[in-house]
Amino acid sequence: MTPEQRRTAVTSAMKSAGISERQACRFTGFARSSQRYTTRRPSDTALRERLHTLAILRPQWGYRSLYRLLRREGLTVNRKRVQRVYRDAGLSVRRRPRKRVAVERVPRSMPVGVNIR
């Protein structure tokens, strides 16, 4: 369960039962510190948009190659952050279907004796 889902569970318990935050956190079993937490992470919108455009331009490149390309463009960004944003944006390398060679099927010959295959 994600922290956002925990927060919504606690707030819905507070509204539906008319109880305090402390009682709702005790009832749901979640910590009050996670209820009051506000993220300090900077927004990824610029990185997300750039990754999306690069993924459209180069559909066979994964996040590692796109990370190197972003670094060459002068963007100072962590590889793990690029990987997280790439995954959260729903981007992935397009897999090609496997091609099978069409081989004419030949029926197997029946064994004519013992221990013959």
Structural class: mainly alpha
Helix fraction by DSSP (H/I, runs of at least 4): 40-55%
Radius of gyration: 27 Å
Strand content: under 5%
Order of helices and strands: HHHHHH
Total helical segments: 6
What is the terminal separation in angstroms?
57 Å
- Give the mean pLDDT: 90
From the spread of the alpha carbons, the general shape counts as flat
> Would you count the extended β strands for me?
0
Query: Spans of 5+ residues with little confidence (pLDDT < 50)?
Result: none
Mind explaining what this structure looks like?
By secondary structure, the protein is mainly alpha-helical. Among the domains are: 34 residues, no CATH class; 44 residues. The relative contact order is 0.09. The model has no long low-confidence stretch (mean pLDDT 90).
Topology:
Layout: H1 3-17, H2 21-28, H3 32-36, H4 45-57, H5 63-72, H6 79-88
Helix pairs in contact: 1-2, 5-6
Which features characterize this protein?
mainly alpha, 117 residues, 6 helices
Offer a quick outline of the entry.
This protein has 117 residues and is mainly alpha-helical.
